[in-house]
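Hi Y.,

Following your request, here is the sequence exactly as I used it, all 87 residues.
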Amino acid sequence: MAYGITDHLIEKQIFNENCQAFQLKTIDEMANLNNKQVDGNPNVLYDILTGPFRQIVFNKGGHYIHKMHAKYLGEAIVQMLDNNANT
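Below is the corresponding structure, written out as tokens. Let me know if you'd prefer a different format.
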């Protein structure tokens, strides 16, 4: 699940509700984690693994993270599929 922290169309509460529905971490729960970034990308606020799922929160990009961060998202999807195929 990916989210832009500056998204003006999807409020933080809606993102949190979606996370809870899928038993993933909310923004507040992510803020309390020690290992918030997998690769240290400066555009990524949080990038965590929750079971077989990956949660990515971007600093910038707003509602258009799929355009602004397409390469990062694509690589994350490929990694997630590779990891799940090997288990």
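The two ends are 20 Å apart (CA to CA).

Thanks again,
Q.
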